[in-house]
Amino acid sequence: MVDQPSHKPVYALLLASAQQDLAACKLLTSNAGIGDAMVGFHAQQSIEKSLKAVLSAHSIEFRRTHDLIVLLDLLQDHKLSSPPQAAWLDELNPYAVEARYGTIDPAGLDRSRALQAAEQVLDWADQETRSLRSE
Fold first, then answer.
1. Would you give the distance in Å from CA 27 to the centre of its chain?
2. Where are the alpha helices (DSSP H) in the chain?
3. Of 22, 83, 107, 124, which has the fewest CB atoms closer than 10 Å, so is most exposed?
4. Are the C-beta atoms of 87 and 129 separated by less than 8 Å?
5. Which domain holds residue 76?
6. CA-CA distance, 55 to 19, in Å (whole number)?
7. Of 66, 72, 96, residue with least CA distance to 84
8. Rounded to whole angstroms, how far apart are CA atoms 97 and 18?
9. Total structural domains within the chain
10. For residue 64, what is the DSSP state?
């Protein structure tokens, strides 16, 4: 059996995926047996997909990147609002690739702040795209 392709817009698919990463982040944050790399990865991924959802909803092209600063700059370049904690989000950039693959030591993640940032950015993205869902 083959799944039928989704007819949802890309921004909606990205938001759904961001919600899944946020759910994983929530579960992992309180588990001391799970390292910071996995918690940081899912927080970063939720934020990255949330930012990309807003960009996609506004038909702004972006290159394949995990760099949150590049995505934040695109929002600013197109005069869109910045998400909550925008100035702190670059702290999560190393968790996209380097920490996940063990090429850096990711110790010291503020798990509660990472989770809070992911929640707030997803809420922001949801608000930024809400008007498009009624069209």
1. 16
2. 10-29, 36-57, 68-77, 111-133
3. 107
4. no
5. 10-133
6. 17
7. 72
8. 17
9. 1
10. S
